[in-house]
TrEMBL record:
Alphabetical list of Gene3D superfamilies matching this protein: Ribosomal protein S18 (4.10.640.10)
Protein name (Swiss-Prot/TrEMBL): Mitochondrial ribosomal protein S18C
Keyword Disulfide bond attached: no
Keywords, sorted A to Z: Ribonucleoprotein, Ribosomal protein
GO cellular component: mitochondrial small ribosomal subunit
Family to which the UniProt record says this protein belongs: Belongs to the bacterial ribosomal protein bS18 family.
GO biological process entries: mitochondrial translation
GO MF terms held by the record: small ribosomal subunit rRNA binding; structural constituent of ribosome
Cross-referenced SUPFAM superfamilies: Ribosomal protein S18
Amino acid sequence: MWLASVGSVLGRFVLGKVSKYSHVAGTSRLFTGQASDEPVEMKRNPYEKQRDSCVLCRLGVRVSYKNPKLLSQFVSPYTGLLYPRNITRLCYFQHERVQDEIKKARKVGMMSRFIKEPEYFKDPALFDPSKPIRPHRF
């Protein structure tokens, strides 16, 4: 009996850092109002793949013909043509907008029609042209 009481006092003394949390020791680890065997409610399916959103919509970028450096990201360096949507991963609205702004930039002479400007070759890539969402038709 004496040994048991000394052990509890000694335990509190040795574990002095833990003793300040002694008020928590008697409580259960369950959250209030939740039983241990009830399923956890989740807002959405954890196995569902996240939708790929358009990079311009996601970042809130406003496309303008005055920014040829951004527009050149969506133009092929070999042909000067706009990459299709399955490669750029743009939504329909942004793809049409980029196409219109490229036409405006070419019309006022801010972008080349056939090749990409060499100073834009080292820009960070927004997408990989060799990995489209769906394969090519041919």
